[in-house]
Amino acid sequence: MNKQDKFREEVKKVRRLVCIVFVSMMSVAGVLVYVMIDPELSFFRVFIPREKVYETNATVQEDDYDKIENGIHVRTGLVEAEGLMTVVNNCTNCHSAKLITQNRMTKERWVTTIRWMQETQNLWDLGANEDIIIDYLVQNYPPRKKGRRQGLGNINWYKLK
Amino acid sequence: MKRRHFVKKGTLISLSALLGTDIVFGTTLPEGYELLGLQDPDPFKMFEKDREMEVLNDKPWNIESKAHLIDDAVTPNKYMFVRNNGIIPENIDEETWSVSFDGESVVNAKTYTLRELKSKFRHYTYQLVLECGGNGRNEFDPPAKGNQWKVGAVSCARWTGVRMKDILEDVGVKDNAVYIGYHSADTHLSGDPDKEPISRGMPIQKAYQEETLLAFKMNGEDIPLVHGFPLRLIAGGWPASVSGKWIRRISIRDKVHDGAKMTGDAYRVPCRPVEPGAKVREEDMCIIESMPVKSLITYPRSGAILEQGRPLQIRGHAWAGELEVVDMEYSIDFGATWKKAKLQKPVNRLAWQQFSASIDFPKTGYYEVWAKATDALGQSQPMVVPGWNPKGYLNNACHRIAVKIV
């Protein structure tokens, strides 16, 4: 091994050392900066248990605003059918769509409900949209027979300790 | 990490602060995307409610509890149902809050600051049942319009405040007084500033009861905002809508109060029984006063499987509006036979009462445990859904849980 080779070897060693020092300093700096920004390291803590959040967020991000999934208007939970957007635009300004989806009425009672909202709750005149809205409601949210007492449904069985 | 990521992270931190949580994968957010959480905040965090509670409505906020969640004798906030008719007021300043007394039948119209109210009158604490008039609405057939409450729109918290009667005596009430009506700080869903979402009240006799309070504490702490901070009217045993939240004004009326949701068919039932689905004229509808006798099995949760030979310990609460519950029974054979449960006295009038029983099952198989309370007038809970009414109020049918013995 001549002197030149030896010198090259030394330079390589020094360069390696410098690299290692630099990389470690950068990582320490990176960690410190992160801790400064997020002192509770909450990003990592929530990361694992909330994996599902990623899927939902990802789908929502790609969604258009009025996406329909399995026949349901995702944003409101209303059934996709003729008149859907007329209902969304006229009936979800003041109250949640949940007030519609929870309820089931005959035509007469849906009409009465609309009149009540017009008389007491500042609902506007629906004009030509009224028939579209009522048809949609009667078609998709008609009363279901329950009888005088229903069976205990949706039982979540578990071993009692 | 590139510089723009630092900038983005900075924005994310402020967004996270708004949401009160971290935005996982926030760095992959497309620019200009409005987070759903900001459009529609997390109600469980916002109102400090347990995640097992069920949101029935988000505009206005209506959240119901479940039988097995309201197991405590004193309901904690996290399991207390939320009922709103309008938009919850914001930026409430407790220091400047005041309540006025006016109306046709007031002798001296007066305004008290919250501080005066607290220092001038003696404080009282009671455990009081507040149950939504529409609790159990989901069982009516034909269905009734409104939030489809199951069994969880009931609570019994410890309320501290001043007696309404002490204030009424201070302002003076004319002989012709009939009713008091409240006015609150919540706003109408339509945004119309001239409309009140709800302005109900009670007969003057109920206002004079010792347990009727203007309350400023719930379970020893400031009342949570969603439950009426800083001042709530409490009228135990009556539909919870009588217990107005965010109270700004009390009107002493010479007639039945005619505020929002006092008239029409709101919080009214037919004065005489009607057939299911009947149309009832307005003048034939009567205002609901005391709530009917009712009970809930709060332990175990429905769906328990246990081995034969082991007795099942059940427990729960029973209440009866203005009355006391005098008898508590359970059945494991669909109402064919009934056995008595152990029933405690209420800690004060209008508080719910605790019951318990130890049940032995004769053989393996599917059972339902039914609970039936009887009030001081001998009125019991029906096994089927009681008399139909257009708005689906007052369903006090017996509570049932499913049990399997293996």
TrEMBL record, chain A:
InterPro entries listed in its UniProt record: Cyt_c-like_dom_sf
Entry keywords, A to Z: Membrane, Transmembrane, Transmembrane helix
SUPFAM superfamilies: Cytochrome c
Coiled coil: none
Segments crossing the lipid bilayer: 16-37
GO molecular function: electron transfer activity; heme binding
Record Gene3D superfamilies: Cytochrome c-like domain
Keyword Transmembrane: yes
Protein name: Monoheme cytochrome C
UniProtKB/TrEMBL annotation, chain B:
GO biological process: sulfur compound metabolic process
Cofactor needs: Mo-molybdopterin
Name of the protein described by the UniProt record: Sulfite oxidase
Alphabetic keyword roster: Metal-binding, Molybdenum, Oxidoreductase
InterPro entries per the UniProt record, alphabetical: Ig_E-set, MoCF_OxRdtse_dimer, Mopterin_OxRdtase_euk, OxRdtase_Mopterin-bd_dom, OxRdtase_Mopterin-bd_sf
Residue intervals of the Moybdenum cofactor oxidoreductase dimerisation domain: 287-404
Domain of life: Bacteria
Occurrences of domain Oxidoreductase molybdopterin-binding (ranges): 87-259
Molecular-function annotations in GO: heme binding; molybdenum ion binding; molybdopterin cofactor binding; sulfite oxidase activity
Gene3D superfamilies listed in its UniProt record: 2.60.40.650, Oxidoreductase, molybdopterin-binding domain
